[in-house]
Amino acid sequence: MDNIILMALIATLGTWSVTALGAATVVFFKKPSPSLLNLMLGFSAGVMIAASFWSLLQPAIERAEQTLDTPAYAVATAGFLSGAVFMWLSDKAVCKMRSRVDSTPGMTEEKLNRIIMLILSITLHNIPEGLAVGVAFGTLQNGSYTAENLMGAITIAVGIGLQNFPEGAAVSIPLRREGYSRRRSFLLGQASAIVEPAAGVIGAILVVHIVTVLPYALAFAAGAMILVAVHELIPECQQNKQAQPYFATMGIVAGFAVMMLLDVMLG
User: Fold this and answer.
1) What is the DSSP string of 179-216?
2) How far is CA 185 from CA 24, 25, 36, 63, 69, in A?
C-alpha cells in the first residue's frame, strides 16, 4: 500500500511539473502585444472548453456507468450544473472583496474577479485529474498489481500530464494579459496544479470511496470551466474584434483542436 501511495505521489508531481512548464511559456512575452495576447487568451478558452468534455464530462459519464446505480446522464448533468452554479456564487462572493482591490495597485474589481475565477476554475479542474491518477494507481492493490495494470496507470498519468501543458499556459497567459509580471504569472500558473499531488495521494488511499465520488467531481469541474471560458475568457479575447474579426476566434479553434487531439490521442 505504501509503495502504491508513493507511486501516485510521484506520478502527480510529474503532472504538476508539466503544468509548470506550460505556465513558463509566459516568459516569452517580454513586451506583450495586445493582439497576440488576445489570440492566446482565445487559445486558453478553447483548451478549457475541449478539456471540459474530453477530460471531464466524457470520463464522468463512463465512470458513472461503470460504478454507480444512478443513470450516467443524471450524474453528469447534476455535477455540471453544480460546478457552474458554484462558480457563479463564487463570482458573487468575489465581488464583495473590495478590500483586496484596494491592496492591488492598478487592479480594478472586474479584473480581480476575472483572475480569481480563472485560477479557481483551473484548480478545481486539476483536483479530479489528480484523483483520477491516484485512483488508477490505487486499483493496483488487492491482487491487481500486474505489469499491464501498472502501464495503464502510467499511461493515464502521462496523458493527464501532457494535457496539463496547455492548461498551465491557460492560466499564466491571461494573467499576463491582465498586467501581471511574467514571474508572478508563472508562479500563479504553476500553483493552480499543486493540488494534483495531494488529490493523487487521497485518491490512492481512499480508492474505493473516490471511485463513487469521482464522476460527480469530474462533471463539477467541467461546469466550472465552461462558465469561466464562456463568461470571462471569450468576451475578453474579443476586445479587438472590429480590427481583427477572426484573430482571437482562431485562437479558440486552435486551443480546442490541440486539447481535443491530446485527449483523443492519449485516451
Assistant:
1) T--HHHHHHHHHHTTTHHHHHHHHHHHTHHHHHHHHHH
2) 9, 10, 16, 35, 43
CB 241 within 8 A of CB 251: no
Q: How far apart are CA 103 and CA 152, in angstroms?
A: 48
Q: How confident is the model at residue 98 (pLDDT cuts 50, 70, 90)?
A: very low
pLDDT in tens, 128-161: 778 778 877 876 765 556 666 677 677 668 767 7
* Rounded-to-integer distance, Cα 242 and Cα 164, Å: 32
pTM of the model: 0.66
